[in-house]
Amino acid sequence: MNNTYHYSRRHSISGTGTFVVVLVACIACWIVSYFNSVGYPVYGEVTAPPLWNAICQVLPGKAFTYTIGMLLMFGGAFLLHRANYILVLIREKTLLPFLFYVLFISTNPDFLPLKSTSLGVFCLILAIYQLFTSYHDPHAKSNAYNTALLIGIGSLLWVHILWFIPIFWIGMYNFRTLNIRTFLASLLGVGTVYWFLFAWCVWFRDFTPFTIPFAGLFKIRFLMATGIGLLDWIGIAAVALLTAVSAINIITHEYEDVLRTRQFLSFLIVLSIWAFGLYFLYEQASEEFLETACVPASILIAHFFTVMRGRIVFWTFYATIVLYFILLFLRIWNF
After folding, report:
1. Which keywords annotate this record (predicted)?
2. pTM for the whole structure
3. Cα 264 from Cα 129, distance rounded (Å)
4. Which of 117, 160, 161, 297 could form a disulfide with 243 if both were Cys (CB 3.0 to 4.6 A apart)?
């Protein structure tokens, strides 16, 4: 037992040194991507919400675009860290959720430098926090309203985020907060955003903010595997495999956590499955759904590497980090 203790201390993966090294490497990925103009200039699309297209037209330059994208990434990672710390999603204090989210975003050129989901994912993380803080509170109408309001705001830039509202209703049901009042409050939250949007459309007599995004929302087009390269598949398979292993570990060791934490983690598992599923259903928004899947995956994978010990886990952790850095530089080289 003494040898095991010293082994786990000597092979800790949650130390400050690991965090600093990986964080500096992720910043280096942004710098390399900047000099290679990966993802820049940022263009709007015909089917994108007009607000996002308008933002793309007023972005002043490459340095500003990369700075905003990096700040949104670090902001989302910080929110994940705070949510994990306050809600105790992982039994031990760790920075791994922050680290994995930054790693997944920084090493995928499809997410750089700034996408419509950059702010949408930021809103989604805040919505998850609002949902979790309403646990076992049937009178949490304000939380239900705020949750849907945040998703509605995110949909102004990325309309497909609206597909996550049913998952939040499932979460409200499992957390015993779903009733007629909280359900109506959630509808009112989304309705508030689109009521103001409708008023804007009437005032300017331009209804394209409604017609264009919602035309793409219901247009399902299955993902064509031939359009994805081998390096892309390796990155997707790695995060999907780690998420699946983490989910299986949580399910098979569910009684090691309190009921509240088990239900939170179960919601994140469902959220990740839903995001990966939509990734294959919407070819035109596949990258956005993959970025969304990184939110629950970061916490689930961090939970696995925090609670598990051993040589295999230790080397898998570092192999995962090295793999994603290698994939990024290979893709930049091919680019």
Report:
1. Membrane, Transmembrane, Transmembrane helix
2. 0.90
3. 10
4. 297
Structure tokens at 174: 């499992």
Q: Give the C-alpha separation, 126 to 13, whole Å.
A: 28
The phi and psi torsions of 50 (rounded to 5 degrees) equal -55, -30
Torsion angles phi and psi, residue 138, rounded to 5 = -70, -10
Scanning the chain, the segments in alpha helix (DSSP H) are: 2-10, 16-35, 50-58, 62-87, 96-106, 116-133, 141-155, 165-174, 180-204, 208-217, 230-252, 259-281, 286-307, 311-334
Cα–Cα distance between 93 and 84 in angstroms, integer? 9
Q: Is the pLDDT of residue 263 over 60?
A: yes
The pLDDT value given to residue 6: 42
Question: What letter would DSSP give residue 283?
Answer: G
Could you please report the per-residue DSSP string of 56-81? HHH---HHHHHHHHHHHHHHHHHHHH
Peptide bond into 49 cis (omega under 30): no
- Residues with Cβ within 8 Å of 180's Cβ and at least 6 positions away in sequence, in order, are none
- Spell out the residues 6+ positions from residue 182 whose beta carbon is closer than 8 angstroms to its own: 134, 138, 140, 141, 143, 144, 172
Q: Is 221 helix (H, G, I), strand (E, B) or coil?
A: strand
State how far the Cα of 51 lies from the Cα of 49, in Å rounded to an integer. 5
Judged by DSSP in three states, 282 sits in strand
Distance CA 106, CA 33 (A): 9
